[in-house]
Design brief:
Blueprint (H helix, E strand, L loop, with lengths): L6 E5 L3 H12 L3 E5 L7 H16 L5 H9 L1 E4 L10 E4 L5 H11 L8 E4 L6 H5 L7 E6 L8 E6 L7 H11 L3 E6 L6 H17 L5 H12 L5 H8 L1 H15 L8 H8 L12 E2 L6 E2 L1 H8 L8
Length: 307
């Protein structure tokens, strides 16, 4: 019998970490959720409960199942609470040095068989695990919102032990999701293909090809996408899109990953998309409308010299 994952630890209780803890607990897995930033860990559990309550209210989740799942989650700010876990998934800030520091702190606490996973969307597992736990570290890239999205990219390296990927695939299937094993590489599969589309949509917009809503409508109706690329960039966060673009451009040197002037400017101004209330769209209106400040920049050609 191969390696089995029965108890999971999640480090990082933000949107992604809380979502991962939620789906693990709903699948019947005992889960330890570590709040990696200052503040009461009880707030992390409240975040999971609020997500489940919303699904219950929409008839998408049974109330008893939600209560049972919540009881399976232990919250803490102490990394020692992870002792006894078979799999630990980090979901902290997307920064190589910060993640490596966490891995170095976790390594002496873990039994040799424990699998350490990163939820990174763009960083290379090889760089994260180098000199720490190369053989027992993989990427488990969940997608947001975690309870709704079916895909998990399972990134492995040449050094990954033979039992790790099959165990991860079985675990992902237990969560009711689909695992796609991928060879470790910056951006894996999805972001390596998605980021150029987002950047090209922003390029098209800043060059006046069409309005923001027209570009999004064209991609939704022409390609069957549930959301247009400009709205999706805002939802992901323009700062996150910019960071992914920089990493991909650094590693591959391909012009398709070069960030447009409009993206750079919006990030510099703190107009980061939906989470900031304004980005390519203005979310103070319902439904959101194209950001008037961006429309003015485009109409006056103010971005041409910065391209």
């Amino acid at each position: 019998m191969g390696y089995e994952i029965n108890r999971v630890g999640v480090v990082g209780a933000g949107l992604m970490g809380a979502g991962i803890a939620e789906v693990c607990a709903l699948a019947g897995v005992d889960t330890v959720l570590i709040k990696a930033t200052p503040g009461s860990p009880d707030k992390a559990l409240a975040k999971v409960k609020a997500s489940m309550d919303a699904r219950v209210s929409r008839g998408k989740l049974d109330a008893a199942a939600a209560a049972d799942a919540l009881a399976r989650i232990t919250v803490s700010s102490d990394l020692d609470a992870l002792l006894g876990c078979d799999l630990i998934i980090e979901s902290i800030v997307e920064d190589l040095a910060t993640k490596r520091a966490l891995f170095e702190s976790l390594a002496p606490r873990l039994a040799p068989h424990v699998v350490l996973a990163t939820n990174t969307s763009t960083l290379k597992v090889t760089e994260l695990a180098a000199g720490i736990r190369e053989r027992r570290t993989i990427g488990l890239h969940f997608f947001s919102p975690v309870p709704m999205m079916s895909l998990v990219e399972v990134a492995h390296t040449a050094a990954t032990d033979a039992d790790v990927v099959p165990a991860a695939e079985a675990f992902i299937a237990k969560l009711g999701k689909v695992a796609v094993p991928v060879l470790d590489s910056t951006g894996f599969v999805v972001n390596r293909l998605l980021v150029p589309m987002l950047l090209n949509a922003i390029h098209a917009y800043e060059h006046g090809l069409a309005s923001a809503d027209q570009i999004d409508t064209a991609m939704k109706l022409g390609c069957g996408h549930p959301m247009g690329p400009l709205a999706l960039a805002d939802l992901i966060g323009l700062d996150v899109v910019y960071a992914m673009a920089k990493l991909l451009y650094r590693d591959f040197g391909d012009a398709c990953y070069r960030a447009p002037a409009l993206l750079r400017r919006l990030v510099q101004e703190g107009q980061l998309g939906k989470k900031a209330g304004r980005g390519l769209y203005d979310y103070s209106a319902k439904p959101p409308r194209p950001n008037a400040a961006v429309v003015e920049l485009i109409q006056h050609g103010a971005l041409r010299d910065a391209a």
